[in-house]
Design goal:
Elements: H1 22-31, H2 42-48, E1 70-74, H3 81-94, E2 98-103, H4 110-120, H5 138-143, E3 145-149, H6 153-160, E4 172-178, H7 180-187, H8 201-232, E5 236-241, E6 243-248, E7 252-257, H9 262-267, E8 270-276, E9 280-282, E10 291-292, E11 297-304, E12 307-308, E13 314-321, E14 324-327, E15 330-332, H10 359-365, H11 367-371, E16 385-387, H12 405-412
Parallel strand pairs: 1-5, 1-8, 2-3, 2-4, 4-5, 9-16
Antiparallel strand pairs: 6-7, 8-11, 9-10, 11-12, 11-13, 13-14, 15-16
């Protein structure tokens, strides 16, 4: 008779990760594309699967975020990262799967999620309905929606890196962590003033170096555990993060992901950047100046399925509406349809002979002619777009994690 394990240690024969047979792993790999989660932007879905995008509303091949992968969406504040996550969440819920949403900063707005869920059920004016023809009520969707609130980084690490047997819930296909960079910024502040003011300069520098080293260690461990969680549970993990400013001598101040590093970048399979820019739609003959699209946003595929693209990769224009994301079905005036490549232009400098000798001479010259902003400006998006269509249009973790009672009541109401 085997002796009882009084220390409650795990058996040496037990595995920390579930065993997956080779045939099952091959089946999951081949079927991951067919079970990809749509982002709501068809051309972006195609780019994420390594295909050339098309303007046709009819798409025979599925696309989107593949299973068993970690995807990061970053961008400046107010660009639509949370709405992008809601749109992906609505696609997973409409497919009959469960979704786990983790708030790392602001609490999820329940009424906004309801609008996105309701908007996905509306038929497209130029194609088939964007959701399966299965009658589901809002309560059915919300029953498959699991909401957590992690106020600190240790809460998030405990939830995702040391999950209980009941997490993630059954039939979960998507885990969303909204604004994960906020937790790292709070746990590892970069400013020296955040440390004890009574410490000497040497001790402050040591504290900063220790915090930076610890930050990289935690980031590497977290992204490694997230990759294993996505692979073993056959689900998609979507992370949203902010941007930080980095000053370079050649290009000046540029925005880059707030969370970055060798280990972190290597664990991210897909990386999408969201940003704003001017967009002018010209008429078909190109005779008129064209009209400006207000509220235009762009999704750039920086990395897809582990393949890193140069610059901002391929971009897809869209707008944020009440019922979610609305793709702008426009194409460049070229033989190749789809999103245009983006090339960053270096900052322009004045020549020595263009510098004014006095303030009055400088005012007479005019800033636009002096710097060449009006003539030599290089927009991120080409201006030779032609308009084809533009629409006007619960738990083991309760002791550690707040489920957000107010947010839950807002969603259920």
């Amino acid at each position: 008779m085997a002796e009882q394990d009084v220390s409650n240690f795990s058996s040496p024969l037990s595995h920390r990760l579930p065993t997956v047979s080779a045939s099952q792993a091959l089946h999951n790999l081949t079927s991951s594309r067919s079970k990809a989660i749509s982002t709501g932007l068809k051309r972006l879905d195609a780019l994420l699967q390594g295909r050339e995008p098309t303007l046709s509303s009819q798409s025979a091949l599925p696309g989107g975020l593949s299973r068993s992968q970690v995807t990061e969406v970053y961008g400046p504040p107010g660009v639509g990262k949370t709405t992008f996550a809601m749109q992906t969440c609505a696609s997973a819920l409409h497919a009959g799967n469960a979704v786990v949403w983790v708030d790392a900063a602001q609490v999820l707005v329940g009424s906004r999620l309801k609008d996105v869920l309701a908007g996905l059920r509306l038929p497209d004016d130029h194609g088939p309905p964007s959701s399966p023809a299965v009658a589901r009520s809002m309560e059915d969707f919300l029953d498959q929606f699991h909401h957590f609130t992690c106020p600190t980084l240790p809460h998030l690490l405990a939830l995702l890196t040391h999950p209980s047997p009941s997490f993630p819930p059954e039939n979960t296909s998507l885990i969303i962590v909204d604004s994960i960079s906020t937790l790292f910024a709070t746990a590892f502040p970069r400013a020296i003033d955040s440390f004890d003011s009574n410490q000497t300069s040497a001790k402050k520098n040591d504290a900063v170096q220790w915090a930076a080293s610890r930050r990289w260690s935690v980031m590497g461990d977290l992204i490694s555990k997230l990759g294993k969680l996505a692979a073993t549970r056959y689900l998609t993990i979507l992370l949203t993060s902010q941007t930080a400013t980095r000053v370079r001598a050649d290009t000046g101040a540029v925005l880059h992901p707030s969370i970055s590093g060798t280990a972190w970048d290597g664990g991210i399979s897909n990386r999408i950047v969201l940003y704003r820019d001017w967009l002018t739609l010209q008429e078909g003959d190109g005779s008129s100046q064209g009209k400006e699209v207000r509220g235009a946003r762009f999704a750039g595929v920086v990395k897809a399925s582990g393949v890193l693209y140069s610059g901002l990769g391929r971009v897809v224009p869209f707008t944020v509406e009440k019922y979610g994301l609305q793709e702008l079905e426009i194409s460049a005036d070229s033989a190749e349809p789809g999103a245009a490549s983006i090339i960053s232009a270096p900052p322009l400098k004045r020549k020595r002979d263009q510098i004014a000798d006095s303030q009055s001479e400088d005012e007479d010259a005019g800033s636009e002619e002096e710097f060449g902003w009006a003539d030599d400006d290089h927009p991120l998006v080409p201006e030779d777009f032609t308009e084809e269509h533009l629409d006007s249009t619960n738990g083991a973790h309760d002791t550690l994690f707040s489920v957000g009672a107010e947010a839950a009541e807002d969603i259920k109401s």
